[in-house]
Design a protein that fits this description.
By secondary structure, this protein is α+β, with helices and mostly antiparallel strands. It is built from 2 helices and 10 strands, in the order αββββαββββββ. The radius of gyration is 24 Å and the shape is elongated.
Length: 207
């Protein structure tokens, strides 16, 4: 009799486990069907801006201005600079990289763009959170952006601002004829979660 009860208890436990696994599987399937696309967009968001590094650049040595030389590029995911925008009270660390993990720590630097001082396009990005770029709407043409790197200080003056779609990569052109800093965040500024619009600030290196 005792063995029979034990057998029934085991069968009941197994049945409960099977039901639980079935329910879990069903929930995962529902989440994938309804949110899978949006989740995929979030993870691919930054990658759309990461453009292949110019093959003419060297990882050994690149001239920075007339006197400084960037002999070694920072490792991916490491902090190498600080960005300051006095107009909106911003002073944040800049990390080389553009993954979601990097953006949790501060401002990301698109791995497909140039570094300050190299004479080309620099693409920075950050969340529209309260402690990062929430006050971007207060910026005006003529405001200054200062980037202090491990190898020098660079000042940029804002000359334009645009609201673009996340797919408008032509609005973030990578070129090496003029040093331009492009900093963007999600729009609307007070939005929580995924958005398809970006607010970009364009600033030129002051000479």
């Amino acid at each position: 009799m005792q063995n029979k009860k034990l057998t029934q208890a085991v069968k009941a436990t197994i049945s409960s486990i099977i039901v639980a696994l079935f329910i879990t599987g069903a929930l995962i399937l529902v989440i994938y069907l309804f949110l899978g696309q949006e989740i995929g967009k979030v993870f691919s968001l930054v990658n759309k801006v990461s453009i292949t590094i110019d093959e003419n650049r060297t990882q050994e040595q690149t001239t920075i201005g007339e006197t400084n030389k960037l002999k070694n590029y920072p490792e991916y995911g490491t902090k190498y600079a600080t960005i300051e925008i006095d107009k909106i009270g911003v002073s944040l660390p800049v990390y080389f990289g553009d993954t979601l993990e990097v953006l949790k720590k501060g401002v990301g630097h698109s791995s497909g763009s140039y570094f300050p001082g190299e004479g080309g396009s620099i693409v920075y990005m950050g969340h529209n959170s309260k402690n990062v770029f929430r006050r971007f709407s207060e910026l005006q043409i003529g405001n200054e952006i200062k980037v202090t790197t491990t190898y020098g200080e660079y000042k940029y003056k804002i000359y334009d601002m645009k609201l673009i779609k996340e797919t408008d990569l032509d609005k973030l052109p990578i070129q090496n004829e003029k040093e331009i800093l492009m900093v963007y965040t999600c729009y609307p500024f007070n939005n929580i979660g995924y958005t398809t619009q970006r607010y970009v600030v364009y600033a030129e290196l002051e000479k």
